[in-house]
Design a protein that fits this description.
Length: 670
């Protein structure tokens, strides 16, 4: 077994590998760029080596620097994690020449499966089901249009070297093929240095289900069940689960056996994933094979009890698999939510900045469930523009699917992140969505259920009353504490007011207090709109980020953030501003004028921190609704900014190559 390994990666996956290596008694070496000097993975590892500037192309993607770090520290093997150099055969070969072991498959398998065009040809030879399509390189837009017409719409244009949703476009008609081809090739060139694309039939309403395989160097290969990865946005996975609520045992076995057959055909050695798309009749088709550890591997670990990183290390050390297919049992259900630094209320645009507060839920058993949080950040960490915006992977396990989902909902409600925008509200809303809870999924789920983008969920009348009662309970605790301050000129002698109102948007919720014990632990009896008396109980104290208590015996966990004269409450995907006030104050507030926000309808604002790739119009030009105005690149994804109506450009305030902050004015209109 190895004595020391180097992790050629960063963030949560580097931390994840370090944990397994530490459990096995193996020393670890971290590498870091300028941007990651103070990163968590650097602190966790036994040693750390600086490898260059912030840009990945000058640090994490430079194989020579990784090899030099191995020689400097005496690391015998390299675990690549995912992304960066994890699926680059040339990196494996360079390590081999230096006598350093690559903890992953051999170059032959990476080459065979790493190219999406060649992998499909290989799958055909291995008698694995494949999607109809054109597997040769598409040379230009005209060629793409001709091939798409022959295959039949809709089609998927995909980068041959792609991954992570980059370099992929769906075209539903001829007019969309040309633009899709140009965007896919551009993203592929920028992300992978390889602009080749191919076209295949797009399966309508498919499910994205993948099989985890594990193989050694002695011809042994097993599959560890499946993961359902259908909840995607822009072809990027958002929520995953294991097992799939859709597969029956016969389909699971057939998919697993085909995945094993493909892995054996390329002499695969290590953990790998064979991805399939599955139609409504459970027909499945090979999509691609990821010759590395998957981002979503924790859900498989939770339902099988098998540490995949540990198994990868054993295989790389030349050991046989100690697990046989008959040993693999799927126990319970696991769900993973990817927490991204992106603004769900602004079409999921990337967000960067420092984590001024980062309080994940405690890991370990919670009732019947288990909480796991794979992360590479801590409070004070910076989310950089240079790398993937994923902050953490929150996972829950429970005996049943609905119990795992409910555990996830509670965990998200207590996951406090400040300093950046993030997608926790969206993830929390998903956990309440009937279609998700029923398992009626497809890769179009998010686009179909949120066609206008994600908007703040409006609370139902029942939920609004719960939020109003929490707001009032918090205000009463705050007032009780103020009344007990030792520096008051005199103690409070006035009688507790019983008539209150809580404003949520334009709605004033009248509340009458029957009994009040506002010193924690709180117990308040109140009536909303003259209804039955309900009881509020909580041990919340001023300064706590999470309100944990009961509203009429219903358990509630909600996040609180102070705002001027009130509070923001985040709960189950809802985010509301609440102002609790005495009845006579509410009467006066209703007379106050409403502040009107500034008009930005004649401005094109940069929706995210990013780089201007192109300005597609000129000053004085008349543009029609839907025309491209500019293209902004953020975190290697190109975002096309289009006119929402007919306009005339009056001024252009940015140029190609400019780096802009969010809401910077790109151009003005008349």
């Amino acid at each position: 077994m190895f004595k020391k390994i180097l992790i050629a990666n960063r963030g949560e996956i580097a931390c994840r590998v370090i944990k397994s290596a530490r459990k096995m008694g193996i020393a670890t070496v971290a590498v870091y760029s300028d941007a990651d000097r103070d990163a968590v993975h650097v602190e966790m590892a036994d040693e750390a080596v600086h490898i260059g500037p912030a840009a990945a192309s000058e640090s994490y993607l430079v194989a020579d620097k990784i090899i030099a770090a191995c020689k400097q520290t005496g690391a015998e093997a390299v675990h690549p994690g995912y992304g960066f150099l994890s699926e680059r055969a040339s990196f494996c070969e360079a390590l081999e020449k230096q006598g350093i072991i690559f903890i992953g498959p051999k170059p032959k398998a990476i080459i065979a499966m790493g190219d999406k065009i060649e992998s499909k040809k290989f799958a055909n030879k291995a008698k694995v089901n494949t999607v109809p399509g054109f597997l040769d390189v598409i040379t230009d837009p005209a060629h793409a249009e001709r091939i798409a017409g022959e295959i039949g719409y809709p089609v998927m244009i995909k980068a041959s070297a792609g991954g992570g949703g980059k370099g992929m476009r769906i075209a539903w008609n001829k007019s969309e093929v040309r633009d899709g081809f140009e965007r896919a090739t551009s993203e592929a060139r920028n992300s992978f240095g390889d602009e080749r694309v191919f076209i295949e039939k797009f399966i309508v309403d498919p499910r994205h289900i993948e099989i985890q395989v594990l193989a050694d160097g002695f011809g042994n290969c097993i599959y560890l069940g499946e993961r359902e990865c259908s909840v995607q946005r822009r072809n990027q996975k958002v929520v995953e689960e294991a097992p799939s609520p859709f597969l029956d045992e016969a389909t699971r076995k057939a998919m697993g056996e085909q995945a094993v057959a493909l892995a054996k055909a390329v002499d695969y050695q290590s953990a790998g994933t064979v991805e399939f798309i599955v139609d409504k009749d459970r027909n499945f088709y090979f999509l691609e094979m990821n010759t590395r550890l998957q981002v979503e591997h924790p859900v498989t670990e939770l339902v099988t009890g098998i540490d995949l990183v540990e198994q990868m290390i054993h295989v790389a050390a030349g050991e046989k698999l100690a697990i046989k297919q008959a040993d693999v049992k799927l126990n319970g259900w696991a769900v993973e939510s990817r927490l991204y630094a992106e603004d769900p209320y602004r079409n999921f645009l990337p967000s960067i900045g420092r984590l001024t507060r980062y309080r994940p839920p405690a890991e370990g058993p919670v009732g019947k469930a288990i909480i796991r949080n794979d992360t590479g950040v801590t409070e004070g960490s910076e989310i950089s523009m240079f790398y993937d915006p994923m902050v953490a992977k929150l996972c829950t396990w429970a005996p049943t699917r609905l119990e795992a989902i409910d555990a996830m909902a509670d965990a998200l409600d207590t996951f406090v992140v400040d300093g950046i925008e993030h997608n926790i509200p969206f993830l929390a809303a998903l956990m309440q969505h009937p279609r998700w809870r029923e398992g009626r999924l497809s890769t179009g789920f998010i686009a179909e259920e949120f066609p206008e983008g994600f908007k703040p969920i409006s609370p139902s009348p029942e939920d609004r009353d719960i939020l109003a009662s929490i707001a009032l309970a918090v205000e009463l605790v705050r007032k009780e504490r103020l009344d007990r301050l030792s520096d008051r000129l005199r103690p409070h002698t006035g009688k507790m007011r019983t008539e209150w109102e809580v404003r949520i948007k334009d709605d004033y919720v009248p509340i009458t207090i029957a009994k009040c014990a506002a010193r924690p632990p709180v117990k308040i009896e109140l009536s909303i709109r003259g209804g039955d008396v309900i009881t509020i109980r909580s041990d919340w104290r001023p300064g706590d980020a999470v309100w944990n208590g009961y509203v009429n015996e219903r358990p509630v966990k909600a996040q609180l953030r102070p705002v001027l004269n009130g509070m923001r409450i985040d709960w189950k995907g809802m985010s509301i501003i609440a102002h609790a006030m005495q009845k006579h104050v509410a009467a006066l507030e209703k007379l106050m004028p409403v502040k009107i926000p500034p008009d930005t309808s004649k401005l094109l604002l940069c929706p995210m921190p990013g780089l201007i790739i192109s300005i597609n119009v000129t000053k004085g030009q008349e543009v029609k609704a839907g025309e491209t105005l500019a293209i902004v690149e953020a975190m290697k994804m190109e975002n096309v900014l289009r006119a929402d109506r007919d306009l005339t450009v009056s001024a252009i305030n940015a140029s190609e190559g400019d780096s802009l902050a969010v809401d910077a004015v790109i151009m003005e209109f008349i």
